[in-house]
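REQUEST FORM: STRUCTURE PREDICTION
Request ID: SP-0412
Submitted by: Lab K.M.
Chain count: 1
Length (residues): 502
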Amino acid sequence: MTRPGLLRPLEAAVLAGIFALAFRFPGALGGWLEPVAALAFPLLFLEAAFRGRHATWLWLSLTGGLVLIFHWVPATLATKGGLPWAAALFGGGLFYAWEALGFLLVALAARWMHRRSGALGAAVVAALGILVWESWGFHIYTWSWGAPFGALPWTARSAAFLGTRGLSALAWGAGAWAASARAGGAPARRVLAGPAFAVALLAGLGGAWFLLPRDAERTLDVAMIQPNFPPGQRWAGMELEMWQRSDALLSSKGWPRAGRSTLLLWPESSVMGRDARSAEPRLSGEAASRGVAWLFGTEGGFQNLVRGEAPGRAPFVFAKIEPMPFGERMPGPAPVRRWLDERMGFISEEPGQLAPGCAFEVPSPGGMIRVHPLICSEALLPERARRGLALGRADLLSNHTNDGWFDRSVATDLHAAQIRLRAPELGVPLLRATLTGKSGIFRQDGRFELWGAPLTEGAYAVNLTWRPIRTPARSAWLLPLLAGGLAAGALLIGWRALSRKA
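STATUS: Completed
RESULT:
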C-alpha cells in the first residue's frame, strides 16, 4: 500500500470526527463547539474534494460522521421497532448511506464549479446544493446543518433573517470559498475571506435582531408534566395519573394566580387508548375546575393528536400534519404505501390538514393567546412551523414529543438541538413537553433551557413574559428568494466561465 493510500483512511476518520463534533455534543464548550465545527467541516471536507479525493473516500467520511451521530438508530429499530438485529443494522445502514449521498452530491457539484470558475462559483454552488438538499430532498429524519448555530444566542438570532436553511447555505458557501482558495494556492487573506464574511454576517444579523418590530407583551404561567411513561403503552389510568402530577405542581406554585392565565402542557402520548376526536364534555370540566387551559398529546382514528380544553371554549383537536416517514407513515403514493403496510404488518397514520385558525386559544386578561402545536418530529421542519404559525396567527409554539423510543441515548438532545432555532426564526418562544425527557423552553432571543435527563420524571413551571417578534424568516418568500438568487448566481458564473473558454 502506498503512503497516500495509508493516509486516506486516516483523513476520512478525521473528517468523520469533525462532522460529528458539529452535532454529537450539544452545548459542549459553552456552546462554541457546534458552530465552530459546523464552519470547519465544510471547509476541510470540500478542500479534500477539490484536491481530487475519490468520491468513495468522501462518501465514507460522511457515512462515518453520520454513524457517530446516529449510532443509536439500529438499536431503536431493534428494541422498539421489533426488527431482527440484521434488519435493524441494514435499515440503519440505508439511513447513513442515503444521507451521506446527498452531501456527496453537493460536494461533487461544488468541485465541478471550482474547476471551472474558482472560489466564487464553488461557494455559490455549495450553498445552493445544501439548500436544495435540505429543503427538497427526501429525508427519513429531517435535520439541518444550520442547527449548530442555535448553540449560541448571538448566532441563533441570525436565523430570524436567514432561517435555518440559510445558515446551512452560509456555512457551506463560506467553506467552499476557503477550500477552493486553499486548493488553488491563494494567500491566507483570500482563503479567510469566506469564513470571515460568514462570522461577520452572523454577528451583524445577531445585532440587527434587536431592531426588529415587536408586538405587545404577553404573559403566561406554563406548567409541564414529564411522566416518563413507557412509550407506546396504553392503560386506563393514564389521565388520572397525569392529573395527580399536575395538581401537585399547580398546588405547589399556587396557580392559577390572579391576573395571569395558566397553560398546562402534557406531552405526546400522555393519554392513550381512546379516540380523542369525540365530544367529551367531562374534559372541559377538568380544565374549568382547575382554572387552566390544558393542551395534551393523545390519539384517535389512526392519527397522532393533541387536544386542548379551556374554560368556555370549544375543544381544540389537531392531528399531526407530517407523520415521520417509515416510523409513522410509509412514504410514497397510496398504492406503494398500502403495499408496504401489508408487507410489514404496519398501519400508516393519517395526516391532518393545516387550516386557518389552527391554534389553541388561551383566554388571558390581556387578550387571547394563541398556541400552535408541533407534534414531535414536526418541530424539525422549519416550513411546517412557519406555515402553522401564520395560519394560526399564533403567539407561541408548543412541541409535544415522545423521546422514550430512544432510551437513554443522545437522541433527545439531538432533537432538542435541531428544533431550537424555531424560536428565533419565528420570533416566539417554543415550549417543549416530553414524555420521558428532556423538556424545556427555547426563547426567541436564542437562549434556551433543558431540564432533567432521558427517562426521568419531572414537573416544571415557567413564568413566561415575551413580545412576539416579526422576523423576516416568517415570510413564505425567504426560501424561494434564497434558492432563486443562488441559482441565478450559479447560472451566471457558469455561463461566464464557459464563455471565457469559448
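NOTES: The mean pLDDT is 94.
Reviewed by: T.R.
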